[in-house]
Design a protein that fits this description.
The chain is of the alpha/beta class and 306 residues long. 30% of the residues lie in helices and 25% in strands. It has helices spanning 11-17, 25-28, 47-58, 82-88, 92-95, 121-134, 143-153, 199-203, 242-252, 278-294; strands at residues 3-5, 22-24, 36-41, 65-70, 89-90, 100-105, 135-141, 158-172, 186-196, 208-214, 218-224, 229-232. β4, α4 and β5 (89-90) form a beta-alpha-beta unit. It is globular.
């Protein structure tokens, strides 16, 4: 089954070229089936790129998915055309009375700031509180995961001496969790961040489970006991060239970044990077949608979220 997207979304042509099954609003209106309602709070500056990446991850499922993209009202980015935001994005005021089966909160390039210093922090806190009553299961990514752990549970983040950038091997601590159904015992995932949360802080909170870690990159996956919140510290949605683009961008700025680890063949940036995490990125989103959204969400989406 397809993902339902707005007519004219730029991701459509890219994903259709990859043989990903999409359905426009016009076509979906002629089908008598309730799709899963998924909200995506996109905090990334390059919103069109992130839209395509996340839709790709959501695509490998037999479920029909209807997506709403949400932006913050208290921060206006400069990297996405205003006409695109007007055409495809809602604000919290537009959706605050809706219920969603699933909700995704992306990362954001503000991790070196204190949470309270981020100009949209108060708005984000309102949205995160709202998810507890209006969303069945929420999936947080990178800085979005750190922000939610801090807001909901008081888990601090720590500044790293060097940015964690690269593709790292991870091991499962809860291999029987349905989030990891079909996973190998070890799997790859990209990381790109200047801060971290620590396992010892997670383990102090009875409501949380430490689910997957990396010896090099640290905590990767955390979940609550009921499957209503997941916190993913890496960027499984990244394309093959995303880390390369970030590295060359920082080089051009004169920042002297560390080369992404385990990314370029022979650690040579002249070699095209190898995509070796796509299977994992597809599977973690598919499992979240199937086991923690579709199979437990109310059939009537307007029922109050428990």
């Amino acid at each position: 089954m397809p993902i339902k997207i707005p007519d004219g979304l730029p991701a459509q042509s890219i994903l259709e070229d990859e043989h990903i099954f999409l359905m426009t609003e016009h076509r979906a209106l002629h089908q008598d089936i309730r799709p899963l309602k998924i909200g995506i709070l996109n905090l990334m500056p390059t919103k069109i790129v992130t839209e395509t990446q996340i839709l790709r991850c959501l695509s490998n499922t037999p479920l029909q998915i209807e997506v709403d993209f949400i932006q913050t009202a208290t921060h206006q980015g400069k990297n996405t055309p205003q006409e695109h935001l007007i055409a495809f994005y809602k604000t919290f005021d537009d959706i605050k009375d809706f219920n969603y089966d699933g909700f995704i909160i992306t990362g954001a390039p503000v991790e070196q700031m204190e949470f309270e210093e981020v100009d949209y922090w108060d708005e984000l806190c309102r949205i995160m509180d709202w998810t507890t009553t209006h969303v069945h299961s929420t999936f947080h990514i990178c800085w979005g995961a750190q922000a939610a752990l801090y807001h909901h549970y008081g888990v601090p983040k720590y500044q790293l001496e060097q940015k964690v950038s690269g593709v790292f091997t991870h091991k499962l601590l809860t291999p029987k969790s349905r989030l990891f159904h079909g996973f190998d015992s070890e799997f790859y995932a990209p990381h790109s961040r200047h801060t971290e949360v620590r396992a010892e802080d997670i383990l102090k909170i009875p409501e949380l489970r430490l689910m997957a870690v990396s010896d090099e990159a640290g905590v990767y996956a955390v979940g609550d006991a009921g499957g209503n919140r997941f916190f993913i510290m890496g960027h499984s949605e990244y394309d093959a060239g995303t880390l390369d683009a970030e590295y060359r961008r920082d080089l051009a700025k004169g920042l002297e970044p560390q080369m992404p680890r385990h990314y370029y063949p022979n650690d040579d940036p002249s070699n095209p990077p190898i995509l070796k995490w796509r299977a994992h990125s597809t599977l973690i989103y598919t499992n979240w949608l199937n086991y923690f959204v579709y199979q437990t969400t109310p059939f009537d989406i307007n029922e109050r979220i428990k």
